[in-house]
Design brief:
The complex is a heterodimer of chains A (478) and B (481). Chain A is an alpha/beta fold and 478 residues long. Chain A is 44% helix and 13% strand. Chain A starts with 12 loop residues before the first helix and ends in a 6-residue tail after the last helix. Chain B has 481 residues and is α/β, with parallel strands linked by helices. Chain B has three domains: 7-60 and 361-479, Aspartate Aminotransferase, domain 1 (Alpha-Beta Complex), CATH 3.90.1150; 65-104, Helix Hairpins; 112-345, Type I PLP-dependent aspartate aminotransferase-like (Major domain) (Aspartate Aminotransferase, domain 2, 3-Layer(aba) Sandwich). Chain B has 17 helices and 14 strands. Chain B has helices at 12-16, 24-38, 65-75, 85-88, 91-103, 119-133, 149-159, 176-183, 203-215, 238-251, 275-281, 318-330, 336-345, 356-382, 406-414, 419-431, 461-478, and strands at residues 49-50, 142-145, 165-171, 187-192, 219-226, 254-258, 290-295, 309-314, 387-388, 397-398, 401-402, 433-434, 436-437, 448-453. Chain B has a seven-stranded mixed β-sheet, sandwiched between helices. In chain B, strands 9, 10, 11, 13 and 14 form a five-stranded antiparallel β-sheet that branches. The N and C termini of chain B lie far apart (54 Å). Classes of the chains: A alpha/beta (478), B alpha/beta (481).
């Protein structure tokens, strides 16, 4: 028998092209070392609970009760669950005929989508339609669905920020489209330059591409910058002029660590701008329960909201959603709870607010500790983490390090990160996994290790970096 | 200004794919349900009965208590510190929850896990597979997914390079397969199950379809088998399974074995044999690429809303496994509750465990009831004029064939509908019963079917049968030639 159907050579090329560094080479090496007994600090993925962040109590109480409704019938349930958690569990069970074990509406439980719409309305001051909100198994599934709907062939281009969260590059590869990069300016606090972005679009078009959509990640990943209202207006005008769908990844909207630029949604700015633009620009907004101060990554809860999408397109998106039958119901309940958390006066409010504030305050402190820590290291420059969960320092690698890396067949930042891992157990993701300017190197780490571990981690990094720089310093400096 | 995203410029593969299980008839039913809420009494029935989808708990089936106890404790591990839980939870559910939490790094059920799923849970599943089959299973071969469906999509993505790549699919089939093949731009190569022999699979027919496809320049990459069948409900005979495996080996095909109904068998003369067991019994081991799918949505547990499932991959080279891992990693991981549930389904209470008796009683109650409902509906359909219905040996569906009179076919054509869709729509509008037209699953051209689940609660079955009978007799009378 000759070649087999699943020989490597016979695989879909698009699959082979996909890269996802967040769980790529560094992570696999770190896992190997962990199996050999080395202590590894995984800072490769925004996974708060894996690094000791505790789940918020109230949602876990509610979901546990929904999971085991027989508890609600027990006279003693009030001894271990507060009354508002009990009431809220009943509320969700009444919305989900068949409970947690039944496929829901393919778009998600209508009552939960209503809670999402109400949250959006409170947040932005504009009404939101639950019919245009689809719950998904994590925001990533929603991103994949939208990109799959948009990309027809390799001539369809999607504008993606560089550096970017590599879900976007992976999805574009998988669906056979083209990534059109627009570079964020590190010296301008990772700001977006509309002029160069417009040039990217023109260059793509001159190559025969149809640029269909623009991705923004706000707050940014890996870069952490928070867009100002003026930035967003500029972007929306750009999308209007260039006829692009705006895909607004806003999963880190609760993670804001400075006060100058609070989170403002793309949708709010769009509606503030008024007609005609507010009626014309097509917008998809993504959110999740995985980030913020909830950090419930393992639940796989997310949604996307469609604005100005024609009804027939919505029907097609619904059709594709229906093939997956329904998003997981516990994840939907987590989303409902996040959108509609305990309020002042509720029994659980104080505890909920205290837990939330404690997490956010600590994240803010850790963002500063890490930025300062990196900036105190030689040849390392680090923009402040304004938002999200990551630090993305630039490592100015000496030429000898770059040359050594290349002769070892490795990207220079991969080389650096592997050495860092082996020396300190700190598992990061090399900047090449996110995209960066030619010859400029970074690594991404998260700000999630426990606050008490931070000083030790930063000093371990500094020690490694000092010794690396000494080992590879340019002779011309001697 | 032409909008960037309009139907005219969407991915044509998205436009092409269809999924009747939640298609037109169901959308219409939802509208009627809304109408019943807003204007009670405005329709000739008082409730919509969804018999379109294998969604047991939406129709009153109760979850397995032990599973829910364990899941609740894993959702809120703080409970394990409270004395009071001893009066609320069985002792073995408490110890199982503790054991599971110990397998999860940091006991963090809210963290992304390993992209294949938590290792300790995969070990439990591998042990369950080994106990089921008598042949060893490996945790590294298991990928936990959000339901079985994402695993199907992943393999189609891997296998389909262009429209010349074909996948052999049984007709009738569960339309996830046709939809996934369309979404990935491949060619569906049908092989027809034989209705007159209880939906039997003839290898000679499959071979004929394969050769025909190849002669048209199609590179046939894989064979899908659904066992027990959906919508057809047949359980493959072991001999048949041996033939299928040998066929795949000889023809260089990947075998995609959808085994999600493995715990739904209603006849004493048939048993479930996994394709993994068959492959290993033939001594093929790693020579035949095999993907086996299982889910927490079916069986007697029916936990559709949890989105739990796995695929077990064997006979794949290391570079290919790396690609499968890589694609899985882009989505990071499947939901943890679903992962835990998959490990419970494959490793339920055993004799001697405190919960065993009640667990076994719940399981038996559900399975014997399903068997009774399957039989009651099968007999009822067979008693109707112009309807013949094969036995549901397994799964959750009946797939009766309707011999539609020409007048009905003409009326359907005039209404621009497939005749079975026309019938199903009329059924819905007269009775509130929602079924899926056979054209949604594929059928021999010129034959008409519909798929009806066996899931409505047992006490509702007589009323469903009588309402159906009234409708059907009136329909046939109206369209008599």
């Amino acid at each position: 028998m000759g070649r087999k159907a699943l020989d490597y050579e016979e695989l879909n090329e698009n699959v082979k092209k996909v890269q996802y560094a967040v769980r790529g080479e560094l992570y696999l090496r770190a896992s190997e070392l962990q199996k050999e007994g080395k202590r590894i600090i995984f800072t490769n993925v925004g996974n708060p609970h894996a690094l000791g962040q505790k789940p918020l109590t109230f949602p876990r109480q509610v979901v546990a009760l929904c999971q085991a409704p027989f508890l609600l019938d027990d006279p003693n349930v009030g001894l271990i669950f507060p009354a508002d958690a009990i009431a809220r569990a009943k509320h969700y069970l009444s919305m989900a005929p068949g409970g947690l074990g039944a496929y829901s509406d393919s778009r998600g439980i209508p009552g939960v989508r209503k809670e999402v719409a109400e949250f959006i309305q409170r947040r932005d001051g504009y009404p939101s339609d639950p019919e245009l909100i689809y719950l998904t198994d994590g925001a990533s599934k929603g991103v994949m669905q939208m990109l799959n709907a948009i990309i027809r062939n390799e001539r369809d281009g999607i504008l993606v920020p560089v550096p970017q969260y590599p879900l976007y590059s992976a999805a574009i590869s998988l669906f056979g489209g083209s990534l059109v990069p627009y570079y964020l300016e590190e010296e301008a606090n990772w700001g977006l330059d509309i002029v160069t972005t417009r040039q990217s679009v023109a260059a793509a078009r001159s190559k025969g591409m149809t640029v269909r959509a623009m991705v923004i990640i706000n707050p940014g990943n890996p870069t952490g910058q928070c867009l100002s209202e003026a930035n967003i207006r500029e972007l929306l005008n750009f999308c209007y002029q260039e006829n692009l769908v705006l895909l607004a990844d806003e999963v880190y909207q609760q993670n804001i660590y400075q006060d100058e630029r609070p989170f403002i949604s793309a949708r709010k700015v769009l509606f503030d701008m008024g007609p005609p633009i507010s009626r014309e620009v097509q917008l998809i907004s993504f959110h999740t329960v995985s980030k913020g101060y909830w950090g419930e990554c393992g639940q796989r809860g997310g949604y996307f909201e469609m604005t100005n999408i024609p009804p027939k397109t919505v029907d097609e998106i619904y059709k594709v959603a229906s093939i997956a039958l329904s998003p997981n119901v516990p994840g939907q309940i987590f989303m409902g709870l996040m959108m509609n958390p305990p309020k002042p006066g509720d029994i659980s409010y104080l505890k909920f607010a205290t837990e939330s504030k404690s997490i956010l305050d600590s994240l803010r402190r850790r963002a500063q500790i890490m930025t300062d820590g990196f900036n105190s290291c030689q040849n390392v420059v680090c923009n402040f983490t304004e938002g999200a969960m990551y630090s993305f320092p630039q490592i100015r690698l000496p030429k000898r390090a770059i040359d050594t890396a290349k002769s070892a067949g490795k990207e220079p930042d991969v080389f650096y990160c592997l050495k860092l891992l082996e020396a300190t157990g700190i598992s990061t993701v090399p900047g090449s996994g996110f995209g960066q300017k030619e010859g400029v190197f970074h690594l991404r780490t998260t700000i999630l290790p426990a606050e008490e571990d931070m000083p030790a981690i930063m000093s371990s990094f500094k020690k490694f970096n000092d010794s690396f720089m000494e080992q590879y310093q340019d002779y011309s400096r001697l | 200004m032409a909008s960037s995203v309009a139907v005219e410029n969407l991915n044509p593969k998205v436009l092409k794919c269809e999924y009747a299980v939640r298609g037109e008839i169901v959308i219409h039913a939802q509208r009627l349900q809304q109408q019943l809420q807003n204007q009670p009494g405005s329709l000739p029935f008082h409730e919509i009965l969804y018999c379109n989808i294998g969604n047991p708990q939406s129709l009153g089936q109760q979850p397995v208590t032990f599973f829910r106890e364990v899941l609740a404790l894993c959702d809120h591990p703080y409970l394990l510190q409270r004395e009071e839980i001893k009066s609320l939870f069985s002792a073995d559910s408490i110890s199982r929850a503790k054991q599971i939490l110990a397998l999860i790094p940091g006991r963090a059920t809210g963290a992304y896990s390993h992209s294949q799923g938590i290792k300790g849970l995969r070990d439990a599943i591998a042990a369950g597979i080994t106990a089921r089959d008598g042949f060893p299973a490996n945790a590294d071969d298991i990928f936990l997914t959000d339901g079985a469906s994402p695993g199907v999509h992943l393999m189609m993505q891997l296998l389909i390079r262009n429209e010349k790549d074909g996948i052999l699919v049984p007709i009738p089939q569960y339309p996830l397969y046709s939809a996934s093949i369309a979404l990935h731009g491949g060619a569906l190569v049908p092989y027809y199950l034989n209705e007159s022999t209880g939906w039997g699979l003839e290898i000679s027919d499959v071979k004929k379809q394969l050769e025909d496809a190849r002669s048209r320049g199609i590179d046939v990459r894989a064979l899908v088998v659904i066992n027990p069948g959906n919508p057809t409900g047949q359980v493959l005979a072991e001999e048949n399974q041996y033939d299928i495996v040998k066929f795949c080996k000889n023809e260089g095909l990947v075998l995609l074995a959808d085994e999600v109904y493995q715990e739904n068998i209603y006849v004493d003369d048939k048993k479930f044999h996994s394709f993994k067991k068959i492959v290993r019994s033939l001594g093929y081991g790693e020579d035949l690429p095999l993907v086996s799918y299982q889910s927490v949505s079916k069986g007697y547990y029916g936990e559709c809303g949890k989105r739990g499932g796995y695929m077990e991959i064997t006979g794949f080279s290391a570079p290919v496994r790396e690609q499968i891992y890589k694609i899985s990693s882009v989505n990071l991981c499947s939901n943890i509750t679903g992962q835990i549930l998959a490990s419970l389904v494959m490793n339920p209470p055993k004799a001697g465990d405190e919960s065993y008796a009640s667990y076994q009683a719940e399981k038996d109650r559900i399975l014997t009831s399903l068997a009774r409902r399957a039989k009651a509906l099968e007999d009822a359909f067979n008693n109707l004029e112009g309807i013949t219905c094969n036995k549901a040996e397994g799964a959750m569906y009946l797939f009766p064939r309707i011999n539609l009179p020409q007048k009905a076919i003409d009326a359907a054509n005039a209404a621009n509908k497939a005749p079975d869709a026309f019938y199903a729509l009329r059924l819905l509008e007269s009775t509130g019963i929602v079924v899926v037209p056979g054209s949604g699953f594929g059928q021999v051209p010129g034959t008409w079917h519909f798929r009806c689940t066996i899931l409505p609660q047992e006490e509702k079955i007589p009323a469903i049968i009588s309402r159906f009978k009234v409708f059907h007799e009136a329909f046939m009378a109206e369209h008599r030639d």
